[in-house]
TrEMBL record:
The name this protein goes by in its record: Putative Isochorismatase hydrolase
Domain Isochorismatase-like, residue spans: 11-194
Organism whose genome encodes this protein: Candidatus Sulfuritelmatomonas gaucii
Keyword entries, A-Z: Hydrolase
GO MF annotation terms: hydrolase activity
Gene3D superfamilies to which the protein is assigned, alphabetical: Isochorismatase-like
InterPro entries, alphabetized: Isochorismatase-like_dom, Isochorismatase-like_hydrls, Isochorismatase-like_sf
Length: 209
């Protein structure tokens, strides 16, 4: 398995869509959304301590729904405005820790790079490595990891800092493990939160000598 080095000065945490609809209380919320949220808060705190940029994305649409496009055909609640900017479901979960130094990024589609200025933010800060956390592991986290990889960013994907919900006969666990296996094969190094925090600490020590 590939193993990427981590230099805190050139690393960012991209925390994907920890919004109410995906964390708890909705049909497509991840069953372990709150547990994952706690682990994300832990890794985000370690990132801030090391000087790593933390970016929180939100999958939202214009208040009038003008940029829904074909997504409305696949997700009827989206057509009703459930993820329109300003709705309760679209808001970041109240238990997610957001620091004043963090970047908040709205995105109109699954990946965090499409239709946003994320790449400009990262390149401006000379970031070449990204850590992916959030929900859903097999949709927006997966898409963001692939988008980052094809842009030649090194990608670290958190196996226990991402989560999803079940689809049909497939459980959330089955989908999540399949996603991590695929991502780990070709697009990213897959690590636990504890493993990436240890990598951050090693990178900080190497940087300070």
């Amino acid at each position: 398995m590939v193993s990427f080095d981590l230099n805190p000065k050139h690393t960012a945490l991209i925390n994907v869509d920890m919004q109410n609809r995906f964390v708890e209380g909705y049909p497509i919320s991840a069953p372990d959304g709150l547990a994952v949220l706690e682990r994300i808060n832990t890794v985000a705190a370690a990132c801030r301590k090391a000087g790593i940029l933390v970016v929180h994305t939100s999958h939202v649409f214009r208040p009038d729904g003008a940029n829904l496009g074909r997504l409305a055909e696949f997700d009827p609640p989206v057509k009703s405005g459930i993820l329109n900017k300003g709705s309760e479901a679209a808001g970041l979960h109240k238990k997610l820790v957001v620091d004043e130094r963090d970047v908040l990024l709205d995105k109109p589609r699954f990946g965090a790079f499409y239709g946003t200025d994320l790449e400009l933010i990262l390149r401006t800060r000379e970031i070449d490595t990204v850590i992916i956390s959030g929900i859903a592991s097999n949709v927006c986290c997966d898409t963001t990891a692939r988008e980052a990889s094809v842009r030649d960013f090194r990608v670290l994907f958190l196996s226990d800092g991402t989560a999803t919900h079940g689809i049909g006969d497939l459980s959330a666990s089955e989908l999540h493990h399949a996603t991590c296996a695929t991502i780990g094969l070709l697009f990213a190094q897959v690590l636990t939160v504890d493993e990436v925090i240890a990598k951050i600490e090693r990178g900080t020590k190497a940087e300070t000598g």
